[in-house]
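Lecture notes, continued. The same structure-token format from the folding unit now serves as the input rather than the output. Read the line below as a description of shape only.
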């Protein structure tokens, strides 16, 4: 590359390698000196590129080793909404989604109050496993009220739509406005262990309950996402304009 190679380009190069699986979780990243030599840049540029990867949760410092690739990452909804806006897909590089179940269930005590319905009210569910480079990242169950299914009958089919919330929001004539994501830790059920390829007896998983509201106040989706304890759940919020411009 030329002498004008910037830190963002270097970060993009290694980000793509991580997403494509060329660099796997636990692999040691090239040293800063090696990065400088490869891209013909100053140490400050290489260091800034690595700082971006660290802030994105893609790498971690490891004493006595250097920088290593972090474990699996499950992005939050804001990241996926932005990805859909720019690419038309809510999945990132190397990610696939496999639908495991579609159907109607009674809203349980977790889902019912978030959809503002009585417990036992019939709601539609779509369950899927999202994998990256063939390795399961998280198992999700998305619940939809009757008014969502009425305008998006595609959600009753066992195929990925590429953006279920986006499709529903468009049909309902209101944009996605805000989301509440509630995180807890608990033991995995047998079906969750099977979906995520977890084999130990008692496995602690992270549970993220996501409630997505439209601009008109209606709830378009309540989803329960389960990820293994080694999966990084990633959120990011800019706290000042300067930080936003840097990224």
């Amino acid at each position: 590359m030329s002498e004008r190679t910037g830190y963002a380009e270097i970060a993009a190069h290694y980000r793509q390698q991580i997403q494509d699986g060329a660099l796997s979780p636990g692999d040691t990243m090239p040293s800063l000196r090696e990065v400088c030599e490869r891209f013909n840049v100053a140490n400050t540029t290489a260091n800034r590129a690595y700082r971006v990867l660290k802030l994105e949760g893609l790498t971690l410092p490891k004493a006595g080793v250097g920088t290593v690739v972090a474990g699996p990452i499950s992005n939050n909804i804001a990241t996926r909404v932005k990805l859909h806006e720019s690419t038309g897909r809510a999945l990132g590089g190397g990610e696939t989604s496999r639908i495991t179940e579609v159907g109607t269930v009674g809203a349980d005590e977790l889902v019912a109050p978030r959809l503002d319905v009585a417990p036992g009210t019939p709601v539609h569910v779509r369950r899927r496993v999202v994998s990256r480079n063939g390795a399961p990242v998280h198992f999700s169950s998305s619940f939809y009220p009757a008014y969502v299914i009425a305008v998006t009958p595609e959600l009753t089919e066992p195929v990925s739509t590429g953006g279920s919330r986006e499709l529903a929001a468009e049909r309902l004539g209101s944009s996605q406005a805000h989301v509440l994501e509630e995180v807890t830790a608990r033991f995995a059920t047998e079906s969750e262990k099977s979906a995520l390829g977890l084999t130990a007896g008692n496995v602690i998983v992270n549970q993220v309950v996501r409630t997505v509201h439209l601009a008109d106040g209606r709830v378009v989706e309540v989803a329960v996402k389960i990820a293994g304890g080694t999966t990084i759940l990633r959120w990011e919020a800019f706290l000042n304009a300067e930080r936003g411009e840097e990224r």
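Point for the exam: The longest helix spans residues 7-20.
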